[in-house]
């Protein structure tokens, strides 16, 4: 069995455990768990907060309004969502889209850590404050100050911080300094990082 096939099977095994999971109360209100999807050979993984209503009904990550915007953001730099891996900190939808509690995040954490261990990304892009605080629990970090920047995480993995696409939906402006314009700068950095990693180069942004 090749390494690729073995890793693919391991990832499917994690997804299967997520689909059957009853570790936290979110299992009682979900329609479908949302393990994640994308390439297992990608150097870049995107991690959001939690599934919303459309994701809960389809079982797929980032397919609602915010997800469609996220897909367009990727496509704006010619990145196919199939070329990266996309998931969330928690795999089941919190009722009324509330922020998942720390207990729920902790209960679900083993799945995300397993996905990271199998995919072995070089960079994890956090989408929004919940994903950022999962990886770097520092209350002093403000999204507006740390977005677009890289931080060291465990195992040599770097964290790149971006706004959550649902935040962008609330601000129509594309003026310089607006969340959309800053995200345009950030996704261009992601594209650069993606190319550098695929070419075996050091990250430089
Ligand atoms: S959110 Fe995570 S821990 Fe909670 S039931 Fe879903 S898969 Fe299990």
Alpha carbon gap, first and last residue: 38 Å
CATH topology tier name: Uracil-DNA Glycosylase, subunit E
Which sequence of strands runs across the widest sheet? 1-3-2-4-6-5
Structural class: alpha/beta
Shape-level CATH architecture: 3-Layer(aba) Sandwich
Count of all domains: 1
Reading the helices and strands in chain order gives HHEEHHEHEHHEEHH
Q: What's the rounded overall pLDDT mean? A: 96
What general form does the structure show?
A: globular
Main sheet? 6 strands, mixed
Percent of residues in beta strands? Answer: 5-15%
Rg (CA only)? 16 Å
How would you characterize this protein structure?
The structure is a single chain. The protein is α/β, with parallel strands linked by helices. The protein has one domain: Uracil-DNA Glycosylase, subunit E (3-Layer(aba) Sandwich). Helices cover 46% and strands 12% of the residues. It has helices at 3-20, 26-29, 53-58, 65-76, 102-119, 129-135, 143-146, 165-169, 179-198, and strands spanning 37-38, 44-48, 85-88, 123-127, 150-152, 158-162. The protein has a 6-stranded mixed sheet with strand order 1-3-2-4-6-5, with helices on both faces. A hairpin with a 5-residue loop joins strand 5 and strand 6 (158-162). The termini are far apart. Iron/sulfur cluster binds at residues 18, 21-24, 26-27, 33, 90-92, 104, 107-108.
